[in-house]
Structures are given as C-alpha cells and as structure tokens.
Queue: 2 jobs
Job 1
Amino acid sequence: MRDFSADHRWLSINTATVRAQWKLDRIIEECARRGIRAISPWRDQVAAVGLERVARLVRDTRLELSGYCRGGMFPASTPEGRRAALDDNRRAVDEAKTLDAACLVLVVGSLPGALEGRPVGKDLAAARTDVRDGIAATLEYARDVGMPLAIEPLHPMYAADRACVNTLEQALDLCDALDPARSGMLGVAVDAYHVWWDPKLQEQIRRAGTDRLLAFHVCDWLVPTRDLLNDRGMMGDGVIDLPQLRGWVESAGFAGYSEVEIFSAEDWWKRDGGEVLDTCISRHRSAV
Amino acid sequence: MRDFSADHRWLSINTATVRAQWKLDRIIEECARRGIRAISPWRDQVAAVGLERVARLVRDTRLELSGYCRGGMFPASTPEGRRAALDDNRRAVDEAKTLDAACLVLVVGSLPGALEGRPVGKDLAAARTDVRDGIAATLEYARDVGMPLAIEPLHPMYAADRACVNTLEQALDLCDALDPARSGMLGVAVDAYHVWWDPKLQEQIRRAGTDRLLAFHVCDWLVPTRDLLNDRGMMGDGVIDLPQLRGWVESAGFAGYSEVEIFSAEDWWKRDGGEVLDTCISRHRSAV
C-alpha cells in the first residue's frame, strides 16, 4: 500500500468539494498553488468558465484530471428523452477528451422524473434496461474517441432519483455484459461513501481488478447523517475505515488518485475554500 | 396472488405507525374496532401499558401478532455489553412468547455507540461477527421457547447505527450458516422500504422460500425523502412497486400478513390516528 503520510502526490480534488466557494478557474489556481496535482471537475462548473479556457488552465497548471463528472442519466419516459440523453453523453465524452480526463464518470440515472420530484412511474427494471442500453451506446462512441467510462454505483438511498446501479457487484455485472474483453474502456468508480456498507465489497473490488478500477473517491459517513444528499463528512470525521478500503483497491491493482468529493451544505461548503483544501491535504495524509 | 382488493383480512398494523397518537391499549381497541386482525407492537409500547395487560387485550380482541418489535442490537464494545444484549434478547423472546407473536423481529445493530451518535470504532466486520454470534446464542434460546427469529435486513443508510445486515442475501447467508436445516426457527423479515432497491431482490426472495419468509412489511419510498429515519410514505404515495413485490414473496410461498410500518414525523404521525388506520386499510386494498 502506498504511503500517503508524507506528501499529497496522489490527492485529487473533486471540484464539487469547493463549489459553493469558488468558480472553477479559482479552484484550479488554488489547487495548483498547493501542489495538488489532480482535480475532477463537474460539467456545469466547466461550462460556467468555458471549456476551452478550462482546458488551457489545466494545461498551463499541469493538472491531471482523475475524472470528469459526469455522464449518465440515461432513463427517460420517451424515445426522444433517451435519444437526448445519448446525445448529451456524447458531448460529455467529447468534453472529457478535450480536458484529457482519465475517465468519464457515469451517474446512470433512475426513474424518469424522480430527480425533479415528479416520478412518472415505478418501473426500476425498465430504468435498468435503459441504463444498460445507454451505456452500450455511449461505450461505442467512447471507444472511438478513446475515453474510458466509469460506472459509479450510488448508495441505495439514491436508487429512486439518481442511480439504479447501487452495488459494485451490479456495476461489474454490467461491465462484464457490455465489455467482456475487459478492454479498459469500461469500468467503475469506487466511491467510499456509496459502497462502504456493502458486505461483498472486498470480494467485488478483487473481482474488478486493475482493468475495471478507474477511479477511487473518498469522503466519510457521518453519524448521524442529517441529509440524504449534502451531509458528507471530511475523511476521518466519520465511520468509514478508509485505509482498509484503500488497501483493498490497491491490492486489486489500483494505483491512481484518491479523489476527495464532499457535498456538505451545512459545514464544508460554508467554510473558507482555502481551509477546505488545506484540510483535504492533511486528512489525505492522516486518514486515507 | 391473493386478492387484497375486497377486504383487509391480511392487513397487520405495526403499532409504530400510530405511536405518536395513541398508547398501545388504545391502538389495540382502534384496530379491533376496524376489523383489523393483526398488529405488530414494539417493546417500549408494550412496557408502557404492561405486558400482562397487553397479553389480555390481545386475547380478548382475538388479535394476532404478525411479529414483535424488536430484538437485536447485538454488537457492543465490551464483553459485558454483549452479554447484556443477549440477556435483553432472551427477555424479548419471552415477551414475544407471552404475546404469542409469529416471530421476534431482529434489528441486529451495528457500530457500538453509533445509535447514540458516538461511535467508538469503525470495525464493521467486528460488528458483523458480534451479530452472528448474538443471533446464534439467541437462536438456541428461541428454539427452546419455540419463538422464530426474523432477521430484518435494514436499508444500507442504516449500516452505521442500526443494522450491519443490509441485504436480503446477507441475511439469508446468516440463516444458512446458523440454521442449515431450515428449521423454521430462523428466517427474515422482508420490509419493502429496506430492500426495494436491491437488484438481486427477486432472486433472493425465491431463495428464501416459505421456510425463511417470516414477515412482510410495507410502506413506501417518497421522492424526495427528507429524513433518513422518519419520512416513510403511505403505500401508493411513493415509488415502490408493492404489488410486484408482494407477488414475489407470495410466489415464494409467503401467505401471512402484510404489515404496515410507517415512521413519519412530518406527516402521518401528525394526523388523526383514525384517519391513519382508515388510510392503511384503503391503501392495503388498492396499493399493495
């Protein structure tokens, strides 16, 4: 297992972590100034600054992108809706390529309308079929472009509105079905927050192996958790045994960045951005 | 599949559903008056009225108990703590027997201290070992008394503080390990709220079969869900396909009560208790 205690060579900042404080150009500047070597930006943050400008800033600061957030959201209640999702995913692949991201992260979506609070049905199996078909179509395009897709299984508490892929096993079953050759173009993003509870976690990480482990995200599960979406904890403040989990992914061959992604409306998003980044650095060294 | 549309012969009320409105003696009276034939009470509600008095009320009204809530909470940080949990579970078995419950439901517990907001560690594997040992010991006693134990896998969002058994597969693996003969004394409580998202749900329900399916709980998953614990929906108000799920458990041989269990601090617990029970009856007929 790599030693993280002496530096932050393998720290990446998912830019949602300081989204409330700064726009992306400032985030890039603040990360670069601290010797942070990688980020993972969100599409809306990129759009707000401009894709070409972000690409230039990333090149100038020599930041790597441990991922690009996010494609997915495949299910829709109409054929037009599903086609629009595929178009949007092709654009996301192109943007990820322009930014030279390591992978495009897929939050796959679930019941149509649920994210807006107005689900139009209850057919989870149909949503899962849309997801499978959507990933298959996007994978074809991503192969041509050369941009790996990372399916992110989301915590089951998001099964209705954000993602109907909810365990690592389910994500890997999808990978095996759509990319049996393990081409390296389809894999998973293992986010500690989403998977830490899973009794089959270690076994499925081993199954994933180097070919499928495209991204590793960290934060912490707070006790109590006061909000389903925006109450994630800083590494070390919750109950996830992050060193154990990192040990498992590294044993399975993962050697990339440890990406910090914290949504925290009542705590970290209210603090000074510099304090947040400095804390990410120190906790990366002490708690991951 | 049984026809629920014409009557409420197979409706049971988990008494937490109207816990904010009434004490247990009144709940029993209100259920009996409406021709509800079964309840599932909580230990604190029973204690508040007195075990013997509740046993008499239940006999007088000819109510059945589809279950008794709850045993479990096995993990502890000290040997004394684990022994105390076993003692408490034996008392719960005795109470369930006194009330002639169909089973004692087990919410197995997880990280010691987490339920009080002060987790003393992060060792989920150790908690799972405590759970396994605790169920094994309790099962020995329960066999003597003749009280089946129903492991309730809880939604993964409760993995830190309430239960480290979080999928039906995991619960059934425990059952197979501790009761390989499928004696009927160890099984599962399938609660729609906890398991609806699981991609392996249908397959694991089939695996459970008649011997292991000891209880079936319903409510609904609201979109959005505003609180991790107390924002459950009335059947029909959320996104769980309850008729499909009931079809699966009945196909696997379950022929018992459909037990309504709704924790709802901001909605159903604020309404008139009679309105809640009447709504449970009508939704049992139309949405389960």
Job 2
Amino acid sequence: MKSILLIGQSNMAGRGFIEDVSSIYNEHINMLRNGRWQMMAEPLNFDRHISGIGPAASFAQAWTEDHPGESIGVIPCAEGGSSIDEWAIDGLLTRHAISEATFAMETSELVGILWHQGESDSHGERYKTYEDKLLSLFKHFREELNTPDLPIMIGELGHYLGEVGFGKSAVEYKQINQVLSKVAHTEKNCCFVTSKGLTANPDGIHMDSISQRKFGLRYYEAFSKQKHVVDSLDIENEWIEKASKRELTKNERIFVESTKFALGQLNFEEFSIHISTINESK
Amino acid sequence: MKSILLIGQSNMAGRGFIEDVSSIYNEHINMLRNGRWQMMAEPLNFDRHISGIGPAASFAQAWTEDHPGESIGVIPCAEGGSSIDEWAIDGLLTRHAISEATFAMETSELVGILWHQGESDSHGERYKTYEDKLLSLFKHFREELNTPDLPIMIGELGHYLGEVGFGKSAVEYKQINQVLSKVAHTEKNCCFVTSKGLTANPDGIHMDSISQRKFGLRYYEAFSKQKHVVDSLDIENEWIEKASKRELTKNERIFVESTKFALGQLNFEEFSIHISTINESK
C-alpha cells in the first residue's frame, strides 16, 4: 500500500462543514489510527473535536481512480493553529509526525507529503524567515524518513484571507504565498498547488467543504503529474458531482450501515436485515 | 500536570451516544493530540469515526474536583475490536501506545493506566491464556515507561454480554472477568473496577453513555483510594445530575461558543457578541 503524510495547520486537517458535501466512502482508502490502518471516514485528521473536511479525502479518491484495485493510506498529522516555529525540526509536532509516519511505513510505502500551513505566520513580517524554516523542515522529514526524493505538494493559502473574521489578521498571506511558491518552484520534487477561486467558511480563515474537495483534486493533479498547478482544473465541479453518485461496493455499503447502527440510527433487527440484503445483492 | 493512559478496546475508547449525556467541558482536562495537549472534548479517543462517550471524561472530571486548580491529561490509545494478542508487547498497538505516552510524559507525569479489554477474547477458550498475556503486557508498559509502580485500573466486562446483538458472541466473558479480577487482586498496584449494573447500547456490546459516566467514577474511586471497587457507588446518579449543572468558567464558555462557531452554528457577528458578553461577565 502507498501512503501520504498530511502536515500543516487547520486547512490541511480540514474544517469544512461535514454536512455540506457528499461523504466519501472507499474501501481502498485508509487512515492511520493507533499506528494501524482503518477504512477512511471524515473527519480523518481529528486534531480537534471540530475537525471536518480537508483536502485528503478527494486527493485519495482521485488516486484510487487512477490505481484500480490498489489502496492508499493517509497519515493525519496536521495541527490546527500551528505556526512554522511549532514545526521546528526538534519540536513536538515534527517529532510526532515522524513517529506516526514511521509506524505507517511498517506497512506502507510513503510516496508523498501534502503541506498546507502559513495562516499563523501571515503577520508580523514572519514571511522574512519563513523560507529557511520551511526548507529546513522539508529536508529534515526527507532525512528522518529515509526518503531523500519524497515529493512534497505545497498548497497556497486562501486568497480570501486578510478580509473578515479570524482571517482578518492574516494580513501578510500574499507574502507567505510568494515564499510557498518560490520553495515549490526551486526545491527538488516540490510542486505548487494554487488556491485560486477557493472560498472560506464564515470565519474567513477555514476553507469550505466544496473548496477542500477541489483543493484535494489539485493536490492530486500536482502529485500525479509532478507539476505545478497554477490554475483551477476544468474537471472540478464535474468530478464532485460524479463522486457524489459513485456506486458503493458491498464492503462500503456495510461500512455505512455499520456506522448508522453504531450511532444508534438503526436497531439491531433493521441493521441485520440491511446487512443481509447487501450480502445477498450482486 | 498529571496524565493517564487509556488502553484496551472499544469500551475504553468509548461508544456511548454523545447526545445521551451532558457534555463535559473543563479547562483543567486535556487530551493528547499530535503529541501535545488540547482542552478535552468528547469523543476523546477517536480510534473510529463512530467513537463516543467512554469512561475517561467523568474519571478526569472527578479527578479535577479533588485537585482544585490542577490539570490532568488523558492519552487516548484504546483501539476498537482489539484482542489481547493484538496487545502483544511487540505489537503495533502496544508500541504506538508507549510512543504516545512517551510524548505525553515530556510535559506531564504519568500517574496511571485505565485498562478495559476482553470482549474480543470472550470466546474459544482464550481466557485460558489471557492471564499470562495481560501480566506480560502490564509488566512491559511499566518497564518501557520507567514507572515500575504505575497504578493500573482494570475494568470488568459488562454483565450484559453474551445475550444480544454483537455482544452475543462474547459467551465466555465471565471467565475473562475472573481473570481480570484475579490479576487486579494479585498484581501490585492494580485495582479492580466492577461493571455491576451497567448497561449496553442496542448492540449488546458497547456500554451506553450514562453507564460510561458511572464507570469513569468507579475507575476514579479505585484510582484515588487505591482499592478495588466491587459495587456501584452511592453517589453515581447524584454526581451525573450535579455535573450536568456545573457552571462553566469563562474559558469553558468561550470554548463552547468557539465550537458552535467552528461548526457553523453561529455567524461571526453572533459569535463576537457572545464572546464579548462572556468577557464582560464576572
């Protein structure tokens, strides 16, 4: 199995409202839990109880479409509100993410990192020292994980920043975006992922669910083609529409019914009947 | 800060329905996320997307009542469906839990383990080898964490097992309970915690929310008095009633409002007004 490490702050973890998009259930997408793999369900990067939709699910879904029968795992290590200084190479977040990735690598091949961070550094001229810190971090991950050429996808901060709500304080997000773009264009095996056209929750800082689905597709475009994605993709709306109509496999349907039962939305008899029906179906 | 390690299977993680009990918000209770501490919110042991109420929150709440002004952290490492063999000393779950506890111990003093496991071993005469495996596991945790005398609270499996739903297959839960009791009574610094009178979700295997609140109180009684708890506590119902009426601190009220805002239940203006009102209150 291949795996992908998610690091950064809240927009990598995901804060899109769960109820705003169709759920992605896919028996070929896993998430790391207690060092092992479980079938993915969102919120998958549960750094906070308010975690929601991030870019990883649509990224992984798009990956499975290109790799029929194969599986992918996501390693959720993004941490809400974290600054680049909190991602220092000797900091807890970095050491913990390396630990999680190392557990994951016992049973998977790490093939990339998705990075999205910078809102917490979009003020007070922090952009001036951001590049060195980011390069040092990426170098450290590649060294510690023994993956010297590991591809790193670098997502741009939302263009909606600096305006309203919690996003208002991110007055220097354009400068951070310049650094992110520079690093993506100059550092080996790094690709830039634009946030052009993506929109925010009412808080003005967290990307909304639909935007996160699109962002994940762009991350995957960058990853799969190993190229910079500097514009929105033509397929985004169509893909989201199509994904919402994807027919679930038997295992996925059982997963959905088991979820309902575990949450008390079905009684045992109803649940048993539903499972029998699924098992007897083609 | 003191900390407590949660290990075992789903009833330690928690599967009680969230909506069935009053939420516990307490700025002196933390949970480990990405190697660091965050203010606790349930579900706190997010091994599955269906995770719910477990014993840890009422345990920690009771702890804070006895330690005014001090803080406690919980380290969630319980894994749904795990058997004692999956908690082998060289297994992923064990190594991961030790890793998480080690991160936590950088910033806290580990003062105990809460253990609840055995449903997955309540069939096929697995009880015959359970004792040795459990003793070996406890010894390993104490050694690896350099806490040779670490107290371990051992919760009994629910008396409702073996009857209905998913619990029906746990036909040998009484034998496992005998082993759990024996280990608790013979191994140093181990205490037994009865599940007498506690009830299940409709699945017949997962303890319901109210029962988990009571169970947490029993775990705390065992921990704080270093004694076996072999009967229900007189204070259980009264405590739950009182906890639901506990007045929140300013920080806790801000946490609640921030949660609502993050989930899209308040707009930014409403949120700002609520926060101002809280800040201006006594």
